[in-house]
Amino acid sequence: MSDNQATPNSPPNSGPVVKRLLLVVVGMFGFGFALVPLYEVFCEITGFNGRTSNEAAAVNTRAVDTSRSINVQFITRVNQSMPWDFQPEVKSVRVHPGETKVVNFLVENRTGNNMVAQAIPSVAPGEAGLYLNKTECFCFEQQPLAAGDTTAMPMQFYLDPEIPAHIHTLTLQYTLYDITANATPDVLATMLAN
Amino acid sequence: MSTAAGTMDHHDHDHHHHAPSGITRWLFTTNHKDIGSMYLWFSFIMFLLGGSMALVIRAELFQPGLQLVDPHFFNQMTTVHGLIMVFGAVMPAFTGLANWMVPMMIGAPDMALPRMNNWSFWILPFAFAILLASLFMEGGGPAFGWTFYAPLSTTYSSDSTALFVFSVHIMGISSIMGAINVIVTIMNMRAPGMTYMKMPLFVWTWFITAFLLIAVMPVLAAAVTMVLTDKYFGTSFFDAAGGGDPVMFQHIFWFFGHPEVYIMILPSFGIVSAIIPAFSRKPLFGYASMVYATAAIAGLSFLVWAHHMFTTGMPVAAALFFMYCTMLISVPTGVKVFNWVATMWRGAITFETPMLFALAFVILFTIGGFSGLMLAITPVDFQYHDTYFVVAHFHYVLVTGAIFSIMAAAYYWLPKWTGHMYNETLAKWHFWVSLISVNVLFFPMHFVGLAGMPRRIPDYALQFADINQIVSIGAFVFGLSQLIFLVVVVKCIRGGEKAPAKPWEGATGLEWTVPSPAPYHTFDTPPEVK
Q: How far is CA B259 from CA B94, B290, B306, in A?
């Protein structure tokens, strides 16, 4: 045994094993972050967690199924740090699958500040989220509103005619968040210019 | 060659030099026995510290109303108690046992990476110093529970959260380095003839645990990093307003968290599988099935994480999947319990303290397993979720499971470590007082939980008062009885009856072929394993 050997007890072949194990460690650290997009994709595909698409759906081209109708309910809430008033124009609508409807949501900025809001949708039951197609929605964009103003925000949707027969009621909930601090810079500026 | 700096470079492989003395011996040591001892002492200090925090909790809960501490401090106590016990007491104790025993059990002269071994221990005290220091900062330390759910840990946490995050990072790095060391040691340093299927079960269970560690500790690191950036750098991983999702935090956390609970129990299985055959004077029943059962539990642990989240509003199909996978785990676990019982069947059993702790482990861990099975059933979990029933469940598997097995291991191998027999009378006192008080402490929690008492609250409804008083009395007796253990260990180090190389008649394994106390260097020439 010579004194200049750095780690005399480790056999010469521990390098490759250590390298492979370190790769696993780095890989799993990356996997922890990869879970974020994986989760998004998984929820979008399966409709788990009441997700709906963040992008506008194509306009319906299929026939309206007039043989049945589904009760679509609307619930609105504001995040606890959000001082706006937020209400749907109607509490619920009955629609035939394939039929396009527009529902307005009324907001009032009750503060003395210009603010920007973001609405986050959630659908119950979760599987119905896959069949809810929004061709136009205020939730796709950040919503600026000047101090004390009110406005009506439209949402246009139709239900996919493929929607399972056992779904008779669908609840769409919007939660409104105050994102003034993190809003895209030009959103407020554009609003004020108009 | 008398200076510490001069000898530290090669003391670990040369018998003729004296090991450095004083503090430098411990600071610079690369010897697996020294590092193992430091890990064990560190974990025992953390055990007492985390235990005192539990006593603050139990003192406050002795009667309804707010008496001793304010709710925010109470929350810090539940949080830091959990963090210290998981990352500071149980995990380092197992790493300490692995350091001491794995090389001796496989006939290796030391761990494969002795310098990394030194690092992986010495960063731990810094991690816990950071965590504990955060308690004294303005706004207090972490108060969001050891599970640090977002948004509690992001939007609503105190400014010291960054310290929590960094201390968890350091704990993670330490565990990962320890795990890599164990894997490399087992793969590369087994004595000639020590095939995988001849390895003692403690080695096997640690081998599998180490793989779990390198698979999930990085995921924990990712989770705390996301909490850090959400809180301080404006990202929105867990913030719905920015497109994130707080439920996703729970998925990521429990993807780490469930394998983590097996990290804290698999080495226990190895310990008990060494002790029960020794005191039954029979070989272990079903060695191969034990190995496969351990691997099966480790594999399944990656498929059950969402059973911690049944009440988050999961689709029925997912809830069923996680429920069935969870129940499936009871099959390999049942195999293990069956094998331990079958090992004792018609054995010539004696009841020395290690055996008593091992027997208590088998019975009480099984109780914890059964309450786990109850929690696995999705529809009833809605009643049990976040109640004291859950607290009772995981303390049965962690205290009477993991901690009891560590106590068993300590008594079993103390003669090998110190060269002296411990005081059997005092040790039996420790066992019986612990056994009775731990059940007074945790068993009534089942009932108070079923009756609806939520966990992590400093005050409770009047009807829970009687049971909480009993629980608190149990807690103080159990906590104080651990001081008996301290006395036994200190007395055993200082002196006592001289221990032979193999103090237990029925014990098997290479560690008993070296003298007691185990010399500073063992198996410089590898033994032949037939």
A: 16, 18, 12
- Whether B17 is catalytic: no
pTM confidence score: 0.89
- Closest Cβ opposite residue A25 in set B10, B109, B218: B218
Domain interval for residue A81:
52-193
- Do strands A92-95 and A115-124 pair parallel, antiparallel, or not at all (unpaired)? unpaired
Q: How far is the CA of B10 from the CAs of A1, B19, B31, B232, B467, in angstroms? A: 10, 9, 11, 46, 59
The answer to whether residue A18 is domain-embedded is yes
Distance, CA of B233 to CA of A177 (rounded, Å)? 19
Domains and CATH numbers, chain B: 25-513 (1.20.210.10)
Number of domains present in the structure of chain A: 2
Burial class (CB in 10 A: 0-12, 13-18, 19+), B490: exposed
Who wins on pLDDT, B45 or B530?
B45
Which of A4, A22, A28 would best serve as a mutation to test chain B binding (most B beta carbons within 10 A)?
A: A28
Query: A14: nearest CA in chain B?
Result: B184
Query: Are A28 and B111 within 8 A, CB to CB?
Result: no
Q: Which residue of A has its CA nearest to B218?
A: A29
* ipTM of predicted complex: 0.86
Question: CB neighbours of B73 closer than 8 A, spacing ≥ 6?
Answer: B140
Q: Looking at residue A175, which CATH number applies to its domain?
A: 2.60.370.10
Q: What is the pLDDT of residues B352-390, one digit of tens each?
A: 999 999 999 999 999 999 999 999 999 999 999 999 999
Q: Which of B39, B254, B262, B413 is catalytic?
A: B262
CB contact under 8 A, B214 and A25: yes
